[in-house]
């Protein structure tokens, strides 16, 4: 019997991306069917379209009940096969498949970003990244070794996930055990000392249970940046019971450890459009470019993180059309880093010899972070299909309870020595982070209730709508070290020793969010449609980073007396399935209006 090599459930390859491919025999007895005797003179012929490994037709999130081609949103699903073929290792690389989405903001003037700093439709979307439909609270680089597919939904997602960015959301779907034993292993060697290995083992245990284990290890340097090194390891065991039955239980655990070197980049001196920061430094306008291999950090620079996530999901099929799912997840992400980078202002330049820029030095800024994020959530979802008269209904409804906490540990300031512009010396030791007790603590509790319905009015015409109600409560307190000098210094209360942490902010806010969406779709042909959609999404104060500011003064968007930021998006689009549904072509025009911005944002 010929084995279909394109069946997604097949585990049968050991791949070396350096060019060597070795086939492995699947553990399951794939040839057993050849030995079965013919038990009937009748022959049943079944014809079915082979599913595309590159263009998944449906979202894995139960909140999206319709196929991607019939969803009145701009949605892109990046399959596991695409991730494999491209050698994709992290979320940022995966998003290169989606136009208008990516890590476009790397930071400047010593304030570089770390992790997946994702922008979508021109708006920061870093706080709207989800894993299996649950908010991912990390600010680290997300590896894809345990990812089945990546789903990108453009436009407001408030009705889907609650508070979120006005630009859209990203949902990473985790790998799960399945009834197909096998091994998929890969080893990669590349430029910049790149070495990576992954192992994916799926083992059937009995008729309805399976175990899956994903492992990952990677060491690499950034191309052309020998001082910038990245190292991460991951393990993801999972168990499934009741596969193929009406009751299914999934148990998942994910652990990822990263040891990276942050990169503050290089000065733009000598590049087209560069202009010296002052008349006194005008000589920089005529000096050459710096070496792109220059590293302006120190040997003490680092970016370490540890992520742990435990998930339990239970599913029950009442019948072929109705399913209930309950998911409980606990996750903790700890990250600390020290990054030094140059400051480009005129006041930061020292000129030992004003006529020789080769002697000039630049001040360096030390960015630090020591943060711990936790999330505990329970979500219940019900999907069902039925008819009222001639109108078909496709319903998804549910409730969610979530507690998110964040602690930013106070760190004493670090002053790195200046660095030569053209001949930087990174052989500098700054020591580690020194916590001073001036911590900032934030916590948000959320209760959400949502319902979506797609109405099949006729064979060619559909209407859809959804609403989500969220009740939230956010608490925030922060402290500063007293007795300092300069801008923002805090005086020590009577009897408090100098250098002690003193609470400067202690506040809270509560409120309700109503997010909704409505759309219509008309099939022009069997494989093409046009659609319209209107959606509203809201982001309350502190919804992005758990931080709050006292009301009454200041222009911070996190002031407790500010109302939630509201985004309204109208979208008109068309989708066409071609090449036997192996290719989906989409086009859309949209308009997003963001209301109630703070003065600083305007």
Characteristic terms for this protein:
single chain; 602 residues; mainly beta; Maltoporin, Chain A; 17-stranded mixed beta sheet; 3 helices; 28 strands; 2% helix; globular; disordered C terminus; tonb box; iron; membrane; siderophore uptake transmembrane transporter activity
Shape: globular
CATH-derived architecture = Beta Barrel
Strand content: over 45%
Alpha-carbon distance between the two ends: 66 Å
CA-based gyration radius? 27 Å
- CATH-defined fold name: Maltoporin, Chain A
List unreliable stretches of 5+ residues: 1-40, 598-602
The CATH class, by name, is Mainly Beta
The main pleated sheet reads as: 17 strands, mixed
- According to CATH, the homologous superfamily is TonB-dependent receptor, beta-barrel domain
Number of domains: 1
Q: How many H/I helical runs?
A: 3
Q: What structural category characterises the helix and strand content? A: mainly beta
Task: Please state the average pLDDT score.
Answer: 87
Q: In percent, how helical is the residue content?
A: under 10%
Number of strands: 28
Describe the overall structure.
By secondary structure, this protein is mainly β. It has a single domain (75-595), classed as Maltoporin, Chain A. The chain is built from three helices and 28 strands. The chain has a 17-stranded mixed β-sheet. Strands 3-9-10-7-8 form a five-stranded mixed β-sheet. Strands 4-5-6 form a three-stranded antiparallel β-sheet, with no helix packed on it. β5 and β6 (123-124) form a beta hairpin. It is globular, with a radius of gyration of 27 Å. It starts with 12 loop residues before the first strand and ends in a 7-residue tail after the last strand. Residues 68-168 form the TonB-dependent receptor plug domain. One of its GO terms (biological process) is siderophore transport. It holds the Pfam family Plug. A motif (TonB box) lies at residues 43-49.
